[in-house]
Specification:
Length: 339
């Protein structure tokens, strides 16, 4: 009889190059880094996030003020693949999104951090983050600098960019992705020196409702909050629910098992926002919810019941949708031509 053998799992550091490619576009990668800035937010403190882009210099800067800041230990944790302390109230969770995003976007970057009420800040410069022929690097030297500021800040200066951006696209996506943080004044975003503002949703006030509902799973109670209503204005948001986790959009156009506009145009008038302030299984780059999870099934079931009445109102709402109006207009033109 042959002796039993043991094989062990191992990790080839060259796999990092594959993680750098785990993004479908440059904006998803950018928002991984913005998520990291948001996760630096302190409770009861308004975080300010500044984003500046210089296409000629091939440089992008993401800076946040009034957060926790990053110590040398925090920088060590940042450069540890798979390590994350972001469990409760944090957007990030896998310990690799920001590092992979940097590899996707650029060849080089600098991180500067100044802790609150500290006389010193720390800085690390990475000249060739893209090159992974030898796997992990031997280490990065951290330099210290003196500062007279009391407030904390963290800056990611990303240069030798491999991707291009459109400022208007960054602004528009920030409005959608972080809308609750902006409207609730928990965070302020400034893109190329222009503060980002969100327009109010033009609900039909007779249909507007704020809600709070609860459910229980394995002895743990969960709370869902949000708002919804019928939207007439074609320039306003519409088309189902946008789902936010910890103030960050993770899904949109959700009807929780009810019919959607593909089956009934009228329900395109419905718009709602669902706020989830607990961990929900997501894809690695937070673009999809794991809809096979027990937690999601209970959320969908709870919300299905919550919006039953407004769905009926959306179906029976008198004002025609844009699609309906165009369809009627097209029919009338054909009738007039046949006369």
């Amino acid at each position: 009889m042959l002796d039993a053998k043991i094989i062990r799992e191992s990790f080839d550091p060259k796999l990092l190059s594959a993680l750098f490619k785990n993004f479908s576009n440059q904006y998803i990668a950018l928002f991984e880094l913005i998520d990291n800035a948001i996760d630096d937010r302190q409770q009861n403190e308004k975080l300010i996030v500044s984003i500046d882009y210089d296409p000629e210099e091939e440089k992008l800067s993401i800076k946040n003020f009034n957060g926790n800041g990053m110590s040398i230990d925090d920088l060590q944790k940042f450069f540890t693949w798979g390590y994350s302390e972001k469990n409760s109230g944090r957007i990030g969770r896998y310990g690799q999104g920001g590092k992979a995003a940097l590899g996707y976007l650029a060849k080089s970057f600098t991180i500067k951090s100044h802790l609150k009420k500290s006389n010193f800040g720390c800085c690390v410069k990475i000249k060739d983050w893209e090159n992974r022929e030898v796997g992990f690097t031997d280490g990065f030297e951290i330099s210290m600098y003196q500062s007279q500021r009391d407030d904390s800040d963290v800056t990611f200066e990303i240069y030798n960019l491999k991707k291009e951006f459109k400022i208007d696209t960054i602004r528009e996506r920030i409005r959608k992705i972080y809308r609750p943080l902006i409207t609730q004044k928990k965070a302020e975003f400034i893109v190329d020196n222009e503060p980002i503002k969100c327009l109010p949703i033009n609900y039909d006030r007779n249909t507007y409702k704020k809600f709070k509902t609860e459910f229980e799973l394995k002895g743990i109670k969960y709370t869902l909050t949000g708002e919804f209503g019928i939207v007439d204005d074609p320039n306003s948001e519409r088309g189902g629910f946008r789902i936010f986790q910890f103030g960050r959009s993770v899904a949109e156009k959700e009807y929780f098992g009810h019919i959607d506009p593909s089956k009934r145009w009228n329900v395109d008038r419905l718009y709602g926002e669902l706020y989830i302030d607990f961990d929900l299984p997501l894809s690695m780059n937070k673009t999809e919810i794991d809809k096979d999870s027990d937690l999601w099934h209970l959320i969908a079931h709870t919300m299905h019941k919550e919006i039953e009445d407004i769905m009926k109102e959306a179906i029976d709402y008198k004002t025609p949708t844009m699609k309906e109006s165009k369809a009627v207009e097209s029919i009338n033109k054909k009738i007039n031509k046949s006369k």
